[in-house]
Amino acid sequence: MAVNQSPAWQKLSDLAKSGIADKHMQSWFSEDPARADRYAIELDEIFLDYSKNRIDDKVLAGLLDLANQQDLSNWIMRLVTGEIVNDTEQRPALHSALRAVTGSGVTGYAAEVQLDVESQFTKMAQIVNKIRAGHWRGYSGKPITDVVNIGVGGSDLGPLMVTHALQVQQSPVRLHFISSIDGTQTSNLLTTLNQETTLFVLASKSFTTIDTLSNAETAKDWLEERIERSQTLMAQHFIGVSTRPDKMSEWGIPTENQLLFWDWVGGRYSMWSAIGFPIALKVGMKGFFQMLEGANLMDEHFATAPLAQNIPVIMGLVDVWNINFLDIHAKAILPYDARLKYLPSYFEQLVMESNGKSVNRAGEKVSYKTCPILWGEVGPNAQHAFYQLLHQGTQAVMSDFIVPVERDDFEQHSGAEKDASLHKQHHLALANCFAQSRVLMLGDAAIPASLKASYDSPFKHYAGNQPSNTIMLKTLSAKTLGMLVALYEHKTFVESVIWEINPFDQWGVELGKLIAKETYACLAEGVSVDSFDASTQALMKRVK
Ligand SMILES: O=P(O)(O)OC[C@H]1O[C@](O)(CO)[C@@H](O)[C@@H]1O
User: Fold this and answer.
1) Residue 137 has what DSSP assignment?
2) Residue 422 sits in a domain of what CATH number?
3) ipTM at complex level
């Protein structure tokens, strides 16, 4: 039976139709003064307020029934112990094993892989420490000053996002990221770098991704302008991170410079593996492990907390309610801290590449909505861009506000006066964050009485009732970032269990890659385009 025909789903559907879907959140708050306390969960340095959602106790009970009906607790166990949960590729999805503490009681395949994980972290630590200490030398004997990560998707976004978020920590080397296939980033960056002191990290799970390999070739050509011996070039200027040692060797990367991970680590779940190499360069292995510890804290919570008190479970279920019963199909990620600039892009891949699917695990087309369109931006900037649509558009949108309570990075900036004005700016950011979620929830009811008359216009009407979560981090640190990302990974898994889809494959992106290859052959090698559609033919003829 499809999940949307099941008793638990039907009950939720009836609840939504019984008036709840049309009820304004404002009335729930006035009816229940304890609502904000009751619909909140705290775990260590992370706090979730989910009270600004169109839910009540009946809805929550119904969602938990749905979770039980879908055997969620069992699925969580299957995930964290390393059973094959990625069935189309016949693999476990063991990102949690990368952050499990050895001997901490993990069982199953998750325990078996621990030695492999440790040995790669040991090798990674040796390389990281050597570079950070200035002992890794380029071809002319000078220490490396610049490290360029070449990767795309999961081999780029995690390290990019985290190193930007933890920017306050001074790295002994400058870090750069190249991802896009078009060559702009590479050509711009290379003009600013010196071959003598630049090291490239080729990060690719498959080591077949054309985007990464083409940028790598350009980097190699640039090094060859100055370095004659290919052996020197490879040994001193390239490190590879992949699941494919054979392909790294074929490309010329010596074994000593190869860091491995495994097919049971999904690309978008891989920043906890050696793919996190740039993160370790930025914050040291200690900082990298603190991020893993934060994620591990969330893993343990996910695996052991009762469903009703389980942050990823509640967030996932409330999203399911919004999507499948309130017809909301867009989600905004709104961090109120510019250090989290790349978090929305990171979550776009994590969530949409995981759950942007329309067939269930049995290969049948589903007849209900799955992943919403997810996008975002640093909140204060988004206020001056797309919040107009959130407040007055015709599109229902759910939002996640993410904000640190304290800024402990400002102390790095000298001068008490500057410090005071930066703290004032932080309070402005907090105030804006709280004000926006309040207006999205209340709508016109947020207008102060003294201003009511001047807002008496259809152009100044705010419907409100747009649901949101607020996630507060004590501070933004390697640990809280680890907790936050693991939270979203698990929340995404919870949704996939309800929708009965496999969140760990990504067949949707494969065909485009194949067709791009064929198209390239036509463009670059003059292969006939006659079999293409008229629009594509016309576009290609213009290029020719
Ligand atoms: O790490 P790789 O194998 O180069 O892949 C990069 C990215 O490409 C994808 O396969 C999608 O094209 C992602 O899932 C992955 O993170």
Assistant:
1) B
2) 3.40.50.10490
3) 0.98
